[in-house]
Amino acid sequence: MITQAIVRKPCHAIINALTTSDMGPPDYQAALSQHAAYTDALRNCGLNVIELPADENFPDSTFVEDVALLTPQCAILTRPGAPSRTAEVIAMTPVIQEYYESVEIIDAPGMLDAGDILLAGEHYYIGLSGRTNRAGAEQLISILSRYGMTGSVVRLNTVLHLKTGMGYLDNGDMLVSGEFTDKPEFTPFHQIHLPSEEAAAANCLLINGTVLMPEGYPCARQIVEAQGYPVKTIDISEFEKIDGGISCLSLRF
After folding, report:
1. Which of 9, 29, 143, 160 is the most exposed place for a label (fewest CB within 10 A)?
2. What is the pLDDT of residues 170-197, one digit of tens each?
3. pLDDT tens across 82-115, in order?
4. Does residue 151 carry a pLDDT above 90?
5. Residue 159's pLDDT band (boundaries 50, 70, 90)?
6. Candidates 35, 161, 190, 204; catalytic one
7. Are strands 48-52 and 231-234 parallel, antiparallel or unpaired?
8. What is the dihedral of CA 18, 24, 29, 30, to 10 degrees?
9. What SS3 string covers the chain?
10. Known catalytic membership, residue 219
């Protein structure tokens, strides 16, 4: 059961964060407000939230998910594929060490963004993307194996991260869109297809019975609710301008 989450407040430098979108830079004050609402939503789902201060050294640092994978047995510090984010791992290390005795790390030449890692049931799927390479994925699989866990790779073709266009709910229910509708790796699951224009809603979180989903995707919400899941939507539009999703903004454990 998830009981805690780590978040980091957006910094002023967020306007210079990495992005592949053409929606323009985020508004700092609006991002702060949206982040506060996101944090409240985590608390309302029963989580104890550890709030880290903004770090002006790293424009992307509010996306804490990418720098670590927190499993029931160990924490794994990643090595983000964007060079400007590498030192974010150093800043996060002492925080992780407060909560985990066993802390592993991905080394060069491995690259690994945790946004490319999806836990489905008890298995970790690792997307091979522009931010995660095979060396990083193989290191992760080796670490997972040492702790009695399993992982496998999924090659991505168009999306930034694995969790950009898919998400796992519960009881074998998998949200899929775009290229993920044809991936043989996910045929064992009950696939819940989202319309391509609402693919971003697949990046959601099931926390203690409630699905947290980005606001602005009414069809996706209806589809998920029809499967029997209560849904809470959150406006993260400022973070979507810089390729952010619901899962990106927290580390849950």
Report:
1. 29
2. 999 999 998 999 899 999 999 999 999 9
3. 999 999 999 999 999 999 999 999 999 999 999 9
4. yes
5. confident
6. 161
7. unpaired
8. -100
9. CCCEEEEECCCHHHHHCCCCCCCCCCCHHHHHHHHHHHHHHHHHCCCEEEEECCCCCCCCCCCHHHHEEECCCCEEECECCCHHHCCHHHHHHHHHHHHCCCEEECCCCCCECHHHEEEECCEEEEEECCCCCHHHHHHHHHHHHHCCCEEEEEECCCCCCHHHCEEECCCCEEEECHHHHHCHHHCCCEEEECCHHHHHHHCCEEECCEEEEECCCHHHHHHHHHCCCCEEEECCHHHHCCCCCCHHHCEEC
10. no
Residue 98 is which amino acid? Answer: E
For domain 4-252, give the fold.
L-arginine/glycine Amidinotransferase; Chain A (3.75.10)
Residue 165, pLDDT score: 87
Mean pLDDT of 208-218: 97
